[in-house]
């Protein structure tokens, strides 16, 4: 049996997908070529790309007036590609950012290179919520408190802070916040395909693949078409949404193998019953883990319960001197990559789509046993 892999990304992929890719590695569907060896404009790869795009559209019920683009550069490049494409819309060169952790801070910093990127709200200070003091970056600012400029080209937030384990998925309607003309943009990298997306709220969603959707190397951008075609003159042509959308993600050579694997993952998700079925499983998995953490005096989860991530659960041993022993024994028990990000410390269990309840239960059993021996 393979070990349970709790990596935050690149992370576990469904075994069925890996096995299919292995079986097709040297000869895809009898054509005598590996997908890696095919022209991106040949009929075989065109079929792979079209199916991947259609399956993604179907899985997320992407509206017809949204483009589905496959790009390169990861979410980090997208942090620049986004302002380069959107900030010039309306001419104000302004955008507003909600800061909720490391990833949204990086997005904001990158955007400052291109224009006036302001902070609409931040959870970077401690806050008292429901009578309890929350540490910085363990809560999410209420939308009613966001300071959004009416002439901002967009408002950006990170839907799931992979490092902090803060997930904000009850996206507000920008009209009810008094800024109907400001499109909501979401970095959904680490909860993409783990739950449905409400496109009546989000005008543009982007996500690197290497958590729930496939290997690193492809970024998915789902963008309302009226946001396309406003790139700043300095925007590289390969990163201009008008070029990428206009050429159906074939403006230049796309990351063909990563798209192929993502396509296999999309088909796997369909076989699981789609995104709604995975969401149900993700709720059950995360609830089991957080319920165990909350019921224990030995471990501690610090994120406010309302915004705890279903995908990434950071947790701490109250006696941090046991961290090394915990990680070594976890690895011997087949529970891999549980070390928390260095900026947060402690542990982090990433429990993406491909990590089943069985894996979460194996983790909880190990933690119980570790607690029994050291508690
Ligand atoms: N945003 C989020 C939420 C992420 O989790 C990550 C990667 N872990 C990134 C952006 C950056 O992605 P990449 O390294 O692919 O550029």
UniProtKB/TrEMBL annotation:
SUPFAM superfamilies: PLP-dependent transferases. Pathway: Amino-acid biosynthesis; L-serine biosynthesis; L-serine from 3-phospho-D-glycerate: step 2/3; Cofactor biosynthesis; pyridoxine 5'-phosphate biosynthesis; pyridoxine 5'-phosphate from D-erythrose 4-phosphate: step 3/5. One of its GO terms (biological process) is pyridoxine biosynthetic process. Pfam families: Aminotran_5. It catalyses: 4-(phosphooxy)-L-threonine + 2-oxoglutarate = (R)-3-hydroxy-2-oxo-4-phosphooxybutanoate + L-glutamate; O-phospho-L-serine + 2-oxoglutarate = 3-phosphooxypyruvate + L-glutamate. Binds 1 pyridoxal phosphate per subunit. InterPro entries: Aminotrans_V_dom (IPR000192), Pser_aminoTfrase (IPR022278), PyrdxlP-dep_Trfase (IPR015424), PyrdxlP-dep_Trfase_major (IPR015421), PyrdxlP-dep_Trfase_small (IPR015422). Its cofactor is pyridoxal 5'-phosphate. L-glutamate binds at residue 41. The modification N6-(pyridoxal phosphate)lysine is found at residue 211. Its main location: cytoplasm. Its EC number is 2.6.1.52. Keywords: Amino-acid biosynthesis, Aminotransferase, Cytoplasm, Pyridoxal phosphate, Pyridoxine biosynthesis, Serine biosynthesis, Transferase. Homodimer. Catalyzes the reversible conversion of 3-phosphohydroxypyruvate to phosphoserine and of 3-hydroxy-2-oxo-4-phosphonooxybutanoate to phosphohydroxythreonine. Belongs to the class-V pyridoxal-phosphate-dependent aminotransferase family. SerC subfamily. This is Phosphoserine aminotransferase.
């Amino acid at each position: 049996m393979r070990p349970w892999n709790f990596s935050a990304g690149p992370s576990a992929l469904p075994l069925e997908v890996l096995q299919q890719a292995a079986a097709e590695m040297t000869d895809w569907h009898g054509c005598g070529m590996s997908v890696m060896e095919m022209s991106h404009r040949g009929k075989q790869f065109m079929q792979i790309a079209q199916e991947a795009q259609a399956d993604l559209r179907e899985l997320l019920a992407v509206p017809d007036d949204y483009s589905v683009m496959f790009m390169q550069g990861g979410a980090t490049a997208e942090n620049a590609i986004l302002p380069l494409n959107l900030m010039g819309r309306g001419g104000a060169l302004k955008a507003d950012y909600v800061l909720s952790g490391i990833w949204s801070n990086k997005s904001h910093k990158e955007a400052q290179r291109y224009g006036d990127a302001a902070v609409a709200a931040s959870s970077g200070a401690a806050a008292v919520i429901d009578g309890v003091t929350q540490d910085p970056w363990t809560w999410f600012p209420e939308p009613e408190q966001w300071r959004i400029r009416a002439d901002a080209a967009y408002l950006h937030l990170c839907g799931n802070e992979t490092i902090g384990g803060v997930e904000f998925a009850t996206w507000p309607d920008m009209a009810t916040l008094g800024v109907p003309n400001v499109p909501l943009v979401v970095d959904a990298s680490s909860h993409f395909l783990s739950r449905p997306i409400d496109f009546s709220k989000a005008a543009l969603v982007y996500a690197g693949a290497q958590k729930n959707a496939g290997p690193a190397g492809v970024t998915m951008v789902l963008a309302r078409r009226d946001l396309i075609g406003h790139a700043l003159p300095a925007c590289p042509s390969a990163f201009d949404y008008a070029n990428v959308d206009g050429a159906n993600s074939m403006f230049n050579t796309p990351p063909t193998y990563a798209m192929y694997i993502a396509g296999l993952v999309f088909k796997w998700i369909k076989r699981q019953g789609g995104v709604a079925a995975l969401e149900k499983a993700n709720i059950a998995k995360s609830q089991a883990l957080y319920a165990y953490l909350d019921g224990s005096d030995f471990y501690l989860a610090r994120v406010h319960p309302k915004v705890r991530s279903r995908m990434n659960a950071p947790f701490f041993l109250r006696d941090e001197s046991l961290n090394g022993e915990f990680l070594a024994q976890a690895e011997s028990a087949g529970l891999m990559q549980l070390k928390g990000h260095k900026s947060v410390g402690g542990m982090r269990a990433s429990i993406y789509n491909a990590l089943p309840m069985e894996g979460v239960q194996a983790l909880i059993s190990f933690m119980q046993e570790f607690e029994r021996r050291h508690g």
